[in-house]
Fold these 2 entries.
Entry 1:
Amino acid sequence: MTAALETLRAVFGYETFREPQDAIIDGVINGRDALVIMPTGGGKSLCYQIPSLVRRGCGVVVSPLIALMQDQVDGLRELGVNAAFLNSSLDSQQVREVESALQGGQLDLLYVAPERLVQPRTLDLLLRCDIALFAIDEAHCVSQWGHDFRADYLQLNLLHERFPDVPRIALTATADARTRREIAIRLDLEDARHYIAGFDRPNIRYRIALKQNPRQQLLAFLRSEHAGDAGIVYCLSRRKVEETARWLQEEGIPALPYHAGLPAAERSANQSRFLREEGLVIVATIAFGMGIDKPDVRFVAHLDLPKTVEAYYQETGRAGRDGLPANAWLVYGLQDIIKLRQMMDNSAGSEEHKRAEQQRLNAMLGLCEITSCRRQALLHYFGDTLSDPCGNCDTCLQPVETWDGTEAAQKALSAVYRTGQRFGVSHVIDVLRGLENERVLQLDHHRLGVFGIGADLGANPWRSVFRQLVARGYLSVDMERYGALRLQEKARPLLKGEESLALRKDSSPATNTRQKTRQ
Ligand code: ADP
Ligand code: ZN
């Protein structure tokens, strides 16, 4: 038996490693660097805890989650592991005790906050000790494009310079290919082996629908499928969180609000009620969730579009931790895209940052508009693969009907162009449908060649066409010009008739046939 397996059994009481823990652990024990991408709950901790125990010296774990350090250390001590932490919650006497235990070679594991680690005092101390490894937890915090960015993480590349012989293992639950590269570059882990593991959550059913009347859609979903269940409803703004929670209560569904603007006492009371009691719905901003581990969350519903696929995965991943069936439900519409683009345009970041954010949003939109299996697309995004359609997402269960939208798209794009790329969706649709309203007449748009060329479709089907054209990058929405639509380079071949376009059939009145449900 290997030393690693022996430790797994003797210390942690588990029989076998999960894929790919053993390969990771074996590598680190033998002094090799690793970059580990594993979803929450996948078992990242053992990947550095076991090598720390097997290798000579103390394993040093860098983590930004100061609030969780105490729990982790307590848990390890219960297993008989000599663990300690260094962060701002300790007084100077306690710090000295930890430091002398480390120097005396009495520690197996030491958790350190990043700002503490990079202090010269800490580095000097570590240089005098035997270090088994450095584990960099939540490694995506090094990414400047992510929302968890921590400036202190940028300095962690000094570990490689100062401790060239100590293996380093970076771990995170969220990293697309781009973030992965960024982590590797910034932490000097380009030669490290990358392990990407097990992102699939087969018991979660992914469902993404068009936003029509979101409150009624949510209510119907909760009443028909989740009466009495615990779940999370995510909203973008604090105000919407409070309004939605109040409204659900009025509808007889026990709901509590949670967002960073609530008084701390109320926030933690709501959180602990959600964890303790059964059948509560928590309505929350994305502030809710870090470190939440409630196994029986039966659904996660999104009333607003998450900004990235990572966020969507992370948030929906809070459902069904117990392995039983759970729903990830989302509704979105054109207004969501416009609102998010607007927020991104108005954010403080550099042009490059904004472009990166837009690209991420585009990937999320791609997932929404996709007509093939959502799980395959989701896993593909994380570099994981699923060879067959999953059979447990909406597009698998109820195949999306598509229609040849080439001509409609050409008309839509032409109308945007002929009206001067200065108008928003509503006006362009009025022109297409040939409505002689005041604005149209005032602008003389009833004299344009495109006026009325789209009279065969109603306003809703046109909105669906425009949403898909925006979501797929044929059109952009210029927020500095009140949502004016603009043609993108991608539109050219379509306009020239060199390309055709299949569009999703949203419950389109143009066809008048009800969507068939497969039994
Ligand atoms: P992560 O840090 O990836 O979110 P954890 O390291 O906290 O995940 O592990 C999640 C849970 O899985 C923990 O309760 C842990 O003890 C358990 N676990 C991890 N590895 C194994 C294993 N090989 N066998 C059984 N349970 C495991
Ligand atoms: Zn599927």
Entry 2:
Amino acid sequence: PPLAHQLNLDDFALSARHTLSPKALAYYTSAADDLITHRLNSSIFSRILLRPRVLIDIRKVSTETTLLPGHAPSSLPLFIAPAALAKLAHPSGEQGICTAAGSQGIIQCISNNASQTPEEVVADLLADPSNPQRLWWQLYVQADRTKSERMLDRIHKTGKFTAVVLTVDASWPGKREADERLKNTLAAAADNSPTFSASSGHGGEKTLATEGGIGKSLFAGQDMSLVWSDLAWLRSRTKLPIIIKGLQTFEDCVLAAENPHVAGLYLSNHGGRAMDTAPPAVLTLLELRRYAPQILGKKPIFVDGGIRRGTDVLKCLCLGATAVGIGRAALFGLSGYGPAGVERTIQILREEIEGGMKLLGVHSVDELGSRHVNTADVDGL
Ligand code: FNR
């Protein structure tokens, strides 16, 4: 359908079913085991209610916020989560998403397993030094650490990345059966992403493995021995703020909050693609409120998983998130439409977030708090 007919994120998800190749669709939409966490990520939001206040002058509302202290503001409490292999959605790939994120004034986090090299993704920014757009880089530490070190050096050299997001919830590949079933079209997938190995730092592989699905083949080479004390190593290799992605319990959030090397906490279950029946990020936020409230407000908290509506974003912010990521939604927006589709996806969320703030009676992102949500239905979970 024409782009203007796409009214919400579900519309994009639906049309992506027709524009993506069967293999890309299986890889993007798949999640672990029985998809319980994947489905709960979205459905949990229907069990959290908003508490709108009325008779408040809402002519002036600002969605602007700062994701990390001292960093340039983001036009929205929203960012693009790292997702591998964007070229499977559209030839413009991660660079296409970058264009959209830039025009919308939000941060994009580039995956360790992007289908383009970091230099390719930021080529337009390198060509125009006056362009203020910045990105984040997501890291999977490789068993051969020198590969990760070399990649970090390249990231630094571009001067365009302002944070490193260390993903820790996929220390073992989730069992994504939809991805694993469609083995025979992997060659086509590899054709769509000839450079993924360059940005993954795996080495010279030019094609994806033909067994076990894309997810498992991308996992090859990852360091399974990584522990908290390795953050000292990462600190020694980068001066950028380090964000830990994939926190799923209040206990780990406390460890991250207390760790001097950690600048931000990123609550995520990998879009339900790693541990099935792991909790949605909003439940981890509720755990924090209950068991470790001292953490809230200490360091920035990022969340993702299942975001389909502006109200979903607002609920996360009310429960303590600084900003909220979208994973699949950006890929679906890119599919069939290129950068314009991602731009419209962000624009839709912008209108929903801004409209939601008006109906809630708040003027700024900072004003959103637990008094704006009713979590009675999920408090016992
Ligand atoms: C991901 N995700 C992910 N995360 C990460 O840290 N590194 C990665 O390379 C990837 N790759 C990836 C590929 C695809 C196809 C998907 C769908 C997801 C997880 C991603 O960052 C994010 O946590 C989830 O996608 C959020 O859930 P939603 O928004 O997709 O529901």
